[in-house]
Amino acid sequence: MRTNAGFLIRALRHRDFLAGEIDTGFIDRNIAALLPSEPSISVYARAAEHVIGARAKSTHASDPWDAQDGFRLAGEARETLDFTSEDGPVSVLAVHHRGGGTSTTVDGKPAVASPHSAAALLADGEIAVMDRGETWLLRLRDPFEHVEGRAEIADRVTAPMPGKIIRVAVEVGATVKRGQPLVILEAMKMEHTLTAPGDAKVQSLEAAVGDQVREGAVLIRFAKPD
To answer: Global pTM?
Structure first.
């Protein structure tokens, strides 16, 4: 549940409020100080910690092949977690140390989760981070998911990584709906279903079943809307 608790905390701690210098214009005069700023790096650290912890719980400790900790024989395992929020994208670098534990950095700065914060996964896939009265909603970016806000301007579907086309589910001239499966790409021994970014009409197919495609290759083009 999102509340105005953070706003109330900042109001109660404001120097004018503490001095009793308040009137009906208090909020308007101090609106910049009372409204929440963008999430701090500790918020992203908490979100990253939640993602890594949830992933670890989903594995079977008795099967080393089921581990998702990036183990390697030499060096430390590193991964980048890309989050998006109302304030834009932020990348968190997570380093898994061989002796145990994980450290995170944002823009080269050490990011440590606040002991006063908590995180939870919501039903729609967003991660809610609660910190000092504020609730921040973050989403872990999926490289195979088209950006929602650009659905209306997307005029093509491209390969997110090198792979082999094993199925094309549409034909030229077909009208497709947003989210409809279009192409199945086999890459890294997995099948990835690429879907329509919005309602559109297929103008051309730029790849066929059996084709090996490079990352970024155009697979389908859509006709311009009337």
So the answer is: 0.54
